[in-house]
Amino acid sequence: xxxxxxxxxxxxxxxxxxxxxxxxxxxxxxxxxxxxxxxxxxxxxxxxxxxxxxxxxxxxxxxxxxxxxxxxxxxxxxxxxxxxxxxxxxxxxxxxxxxxxxxxxxxxxxxxxxxxxxxxxxxxxxxxxxxxxxxxxxxxxxxxxxxxxxxxxxxxxxxxxxxxxxxxxxxxxxxxxxxxxxxx
Length: 184
Known about the structure:
single chain; alpha+beta; seven-stranded antiparallel β-sheet; 35% helix; 28% strand
């Protein structure tokens, strides 16, 4: 505190006929000495900041196996399609929140026919969950389609992974990632 202010306070309280012990008590309470929570709060903020930065900067990018695990989990829920159509144009019009255009996969060829689709997510990104029917064996399959953005190596050949008895074939074509759930 400024000396003039201190002296003015002393003079004021002396004129009020205060005892020396009262004056000493008041003087000890003037200033920032009694803000006891500043040090613990500052320490707590530092610890929280360190934990937050450690968490944010140590996150590992998703692996193909983590994509397979998520696809297997969603596939086993066996959710019904929201849009029943065999036409990709109609599907894209109905699923207009997708940040990509859903197209048939070149890898799958013409033996798979679209039954319909719904929204879902893959690694926290919006995706299309498509039901396909194999025209050769008549079985239904679930295909996940998502904007790749580095989740799957660009234009990669299909990789087969297994999670909980579900085989997942993962690949990319152009800017899209694909994951086909086979079995269970």
